[in-house]
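Tokens for chain A. Residues wanted.
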């Protein structure tokens, strides 16, 4: 029987998402797929300890890419919005690195840099080129003050974009520092 759960994770919260997916599997819900923006599809299963890992590719997974992970014991589950989902039974973990999809620090740091380039930079450009000027115009003398809906709408968008930029930027920067220090 399938079950859909709603949960929101930003691009910087992928480690928390991995932990949550593992917890769901421990409770008897196997992750099947993710439907944007925040719908997770699970199937009931026997509770067991399964490790989930995500890799960000910003594109489709090729057969060679999937095979590489399969060679290391990772089962490809699904991809969504550039993220690739993998799982591995915890009983197959014999060394500390067996529970990680990245074999080195450089690969982790490269993934963070790829997220910055393909996700954070475009969001920043949209904010800088469109949201900020429109929001600023809404409070200028030339804008008709009676249009409260438009002002409120662009203020909400402004706050949302600002939150996303600050939250994701800070968290990804912390992750990059953490990976570099390992």
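Reply:
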């Amino acid at each position: 029987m399938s079950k859909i759960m709603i949960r929101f994770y930003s691009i910087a919260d992928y480690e928390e998402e991995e932990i949550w997916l593992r917890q769901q599997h421990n409770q008897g819900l196997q992750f099947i797929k993710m439907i944007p923006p925040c719908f997770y599809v699970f199937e009931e299963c026997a509770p067991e300890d399964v490790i989930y890992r995500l890799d960000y590719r910003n594109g489709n997974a090729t057969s060679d890419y999937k095979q590489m992970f399969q060679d290391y014991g990772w089962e490809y589950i699904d991809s969504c919005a550039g993220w690739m989902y993998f799982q591995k039974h915890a009983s197959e973990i014999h060394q500390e690195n067996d529970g990680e999809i990245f074999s080195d620090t450089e690969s982790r740091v490269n993934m963070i840099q790829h997220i910055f380039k393909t996700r954070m930079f475009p969001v920043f450009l949209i904010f800088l080129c469109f949201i900020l000027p429109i929001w600023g115009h809404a409070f200028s003398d030339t804008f008709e003050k009676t249009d409260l809906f438009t002002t409120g709408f662009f203020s909400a968008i402004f706050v949302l974009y600002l939150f996303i930029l600050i939250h994701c930027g800070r968290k990804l920067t912390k992750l990059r520092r953490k990976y570099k220090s390992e």
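The chain has four helices and six strands. The helical segments are 14-26, 63-71, 105-138, 148-181.
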